[in-house]
Specification:
The protein is 52% helix and 17% strand. By secondary structure, it is of the alpha+beta class. The mean pLDDT is 87.
């Protein structure tokens, strides 16, 4: 067998193993950590592709370069052990970064929902949570919560907000979503506002198909704003759509 044929055979075997590992990573990404639509909202797909790209570069492509059947077996074992260690270290690092970038809470505060990632909540702030259910970060997808500031905590909340740490990343202020239902319902808005404002045909289709009892709330995340379609009775999110409601409504106002 020619040298390059041997190299490509080694490359193919290594690539198959790498893609198998990537499939497991993708299952974690899209099945648990970045469930639809949070993969698109937070850039989970880009993160996964970067992780897979690095693993392919550090594994199969190096195999293509280093493999040589004329090398002693001991040398080949050493080479592949070294490559495997580097590849595994990159995978562990990438998965750790991804785990910390996953959404853990969708928090209602003031007049909107905010998507909070694991990296945004400090371990010390978890310990200060007043309710047991908020002292550990969810692993199996984001949980709903609401932020409430009692009068005695207003100065504390203001001081930390001025320092860049809002109440939506401090579990000390988290309460069950249902506890703030009256305030949430007071902030929900009719879909008719958005139906007049959107220019995206896919978004317009989703809005047109939504029930008349459906309302909306803005959703803030690290990359900007989306819109949550919410049930008018329960205020629970039904769907999330890639529409910045503030921008869409302001465009309509400018045209009038």
């Amino acid at each position: 067998m020619a040298v390059w044929q041997e190299k490509f055979r080694a490359f193919g075997i290594h690539l198959a193993v790498t893609l198998l590992v990537a499939a497991v990573a993708a299952a974690l990404f899209f099945g648990i950590w970045f469930r639809d639509p949070f993969d698109e909202m937070l850039g989970g797909l880009k993160l996964l592709l970067l992780l897979i790209g690095c693993d392919v570069a550090l594994g199969p492509l190096i195999s293509l370069v280093i493999y040589n059947s004329r090398k002693p077996r001991r040398q080949l074992i050493f080479d592949y052990t070294l490559v495997g260690i580097v590849q595994l270290a990159a995978l562990v690092y990438g998965m750790t970064v991804s785990f910390n970038a996953r959404p853990v809470y969708v928090v209602f505060a003031t007049d909107r929902l905010e998507v909070i990632t694991a990296a945004e909540i400090a371990p010390q702030d978890l310990k200060e949570a007043r309710l047991e259910q908020f002292r550990e970060l969810p692993v199996w997808g984001p949980a709903l919560a609401a932020a409430r500031v009692e009068e005695k905590d207003q100065q504390d909340a203001l001081d930390w907000a001025l320092a860049g740490k809002d109440i939506t990343v401090r579990p000390k202020f988290f309460v069950p979503y249902a506890d703030e239902l009256p305030k949430i319902k007071a902030r929900m808005r009719p879909l008719s506002e958005l139906r007049r404002a959107t220019e995206d045909p896919l978004v317009a289709k989703k809005l047109a198909e939504a029930s008349e009892s459906t309302m909306w709330l803005p959703v803030q995340h690290k990359n900007g704003f989306w819109t949550a379609l919410v049930d008018s009775a329960t205020a629970l999110p039904i769907d999330y759509i890639p529409l910045d409601p503030y921008d869409a409504i302001s465009r309509v106002s400018r045209r009038q």
